[in-house]
Amino acid sequence: MDDLKSKYLSQIADAADENALETIRVAAVGKKGEVALKMRELGKMTPEERQVAGPALNALKNEINSALVAKKAGLADAALDERLRTEWLDVTLPTRASRTGTLHPVSQASEELTAIFAEMGFSVAEGPRIDTDWYNFDALNIPGHHPARAEMDTFYMHRAEGDDRPPHVLRTHTSPVQIRSMEKMGAPLRIICPGGVYRADYDQTHTPMFHQVEGLALDTDISMANLKWTLEEFVKSFFEVDDVELRFRASHFPFTEPSAEVDIRCSWKDGTLKIGEGDDWMEILGSGMVHPKVIAAGGIDPDVYQGFAFGIGIDRLAMLKYGIPDLRAFFDSDLRWLRHYGFQCLDMPSLHGGLSR
Ligand code: DAH
């Protein structure tokens, strides 16, 4: 019995983990373990022998069981200590430098102009960038033979031979949203639609994809004077100045009559673009009184409603406001440029809080 005791107590002391401990438990005090076998021998003993051996075997069993329990607790403590030693975290370490991105000047300018027009009662409308040539041209009084179609350098979607769905184009301007908005909302109506447009063109002030914001106001008593006031107020708010030198030029668009284009005085000296000075003019928008045929195409009676519309180049506005001389850089995704011209994304522009900071 002493041999058994010293054998199992030392095995328990040496056990490396709970699995080893369980193996020892089965071998020592399990149902078929050595202590159980010894207990079976009690039957063959004389009553005197049994009186000595019985309690001694029970004591041995208890001692081994206690040693197992104590060792198990010890192993659990050791495991916890080991986890605490390896899985630690220094909560006093400095945090990683924050790496927030910046808002692209086009996004910033869009947010700004949306805030300004919202204040004047215009809501934001949207339309698809891939549209049918009916919405992009016909409904805007640009029929198939019209030279304006050729002038726009349109990207046409490929059509397989035999595919007789109506032709689709990458919209060349945001004007088709005028038609979609009239169809959806009827009159009276006051909307702007900012978004991307496409034309095959590429130089310092033209890129194949650029951004416009369309405006449309329809009611029963709207005149060219309302258009001029709206545009002047917008430009002053956007450039955050009391006065901007604007040039209204008589022009022609198929979808307006009469039509006007608006330029802003600016200078391009030594690679810098400045607004409000110099002898150059940058065209920023087209506008006019909506042609009756366009109003009718939108499902509205042109004898009751009339209104004005405009299309402003957002990228050009951003170039002028932030002095960015080359439009092509807007779309190069050069990180240094984006960091330099980007805006803090949490500063939402508002007329009360300030447009740009
Ligand atoms: N859609 C014209 C363009 O892209 C711009 C324009 C001119 C829009 C006059 C208008 C407008 O709404 O009335 O060149």
Topology overview:
Layout (H helix, E strand, L loop, with lengths): L1 H13 L3 H12 L4 H7 L6 H40 L15 E2 L1 H15 L3 E2 L5 E3 H4 L10 H5 L16 E3 L5 H10 L3 E10 L10 E11 L4 H16 L6 E8 L2 E14 L2 E4 L4 E11 L1 H6 L8 E8 H9 L12 H7 L1 E2 L13
Parallel strand pairs: 2-5
Antiparallel strand pairs: 1-12, 3-4, 5-6, 6-11, 7-8, 8-9, 8-10, 10-11
The structure holds 3,4-dihydroxyphenylalanine (DAH).
Defining key terms:
phenylalanine-tRNA ligase activity, protein biosynthesis, eight-stranded mixed beta sheet, elongated, binds 3,4-dihydroxyphenylalanine, 357 residues, Phenylalanine--tRNA ligase alpha subunit, BirA Bifunctional Protein, domain 2, ATP binding, single chain, 2 domains, 12 helices, magnesium
Radius of gyration over C-alpha positions, nearest whole angstrom? 42 Å
Residue-averaged pLDDT: 91
- If you consult CATH, what is the topology of the largest domain? BirA Bifunctional Protein, domain 2
Low-confidence stretches: none
Percent of residues in helical segments? 40-55%
The molecules bound to the chains, other than polymers, are: 3,4-dihydroxyphenylalanine
Q: What separation lies between the terminal Cα atoms?
A: 89 Å
How can the largest sheet be summarized? 8 strands, mixed
* Top CATH class of the largest domain: Alpha Beta
CATH architecture of the largest domain: 2-Layer Sandwich
Report the strand count. Answer: 12
CATH superfamily of the largest domain: Bira Bifunctional Protein, Domain 2
Organism: Parasedimentitalea huanghaiensis
GO biological process, one term: phenylalanyl-tRNA aminoacylation
Keywords: Aminoacyl-tRNA synthetase, ATP-binding, Cytoplasm, Ligase, Magnesium, Metal-binding, Nucleotide-binding, Protein biosynthesis
Subcellular location: Cytoplasm
